[in-house]
Amino acid sequence: SKVDLSPYLRFVEQEGNIVINKADLDVPLAPSTPNENSGDVGSLYFYFFKDGSVINGPGIVESLGTTVLLLDLEYADFAPMRSIRQVALDQDATAYQETITLFVQRLLENHRDDEDYLTEALVTVPVTPLSLEQTAILKDGVKLRVFYTTTN
């Protein structure tokens, strides 16, 4: 599944100079039918593509900051390592929810700089891709809640 970030990028263009205080991603599951007994995927990675890269392309591990959603601390300039963010199902098993503040701030900054642009979409990939678990995401229910401050 794909999470479209273009509404956020349009919002950023309209608002002008802002700083992100907090950003929460909510990716709800579609209602399941009684015949679906395989279980939902417990955790997801969120990949994105830059400069025509592909999800299984060479160098994906070496360039984690430009291909996959990382832990917030990893977006700090002093971060010594790169750790991939695993977004788990919430307690009620109804949605994948995560705070992704520094990624959203970095996306805002990169969007303002036309030459160094991150992405317009995130693609969901199960942490364990060879399992029998399946998940259907409610596409129209995906929300990115952004709390921000305007600056001059």
Describe the structure.
- With 152 residues, the protein is of the alpha+beta class.
- Helices cover 14% and strands 26% of the residues.
- It contains two helices and seven strands, in the order βαββββαββ.
- It has helices spanning 6-15, 101-112, and strands at residues 2-4, 18-28, 43-47, 87-88, 95-99, 121-126, 143-150.
- The strands form two sheets. A four-stranded antiparallel β-sheet has the order 1-6-3-4, with no helix packed on it. A three-stranded antiparallel β-sheet has the order 5-2-7.
- It is globular, with a radius of gyration of 16 Å.
- It starts with a strand and ends with a strand.
- The model is unreliable at 54-62 (pLDDT under 50).
Using only CA atoms, what is the Rg?
Answer: 16 Å
Span between N and C termini? Answer: 38 Å
Described by the principal axes of the CA atoms, the overall outline is globular
SSE string: EHEEEEHEE
Helix content: 10-25%
Runs in which pLDDT lies below 50 for 5 or more consecutive residues are 54-62
Strand line-up in the sheet with most strands: 1-6-3-4
Q: What is the residue-mean pLDDT, rounded to a whole number?
A: 75
What fraction of the residues are assigned to beta strands by DSSP?
A: 25-35%
Number of helices: 2
Largest sheet: 4 strands, antiparallel
Q: Using DSSP, what is the number of strands?
A: 7
Secondary-structure-based class equals: alpha+beta
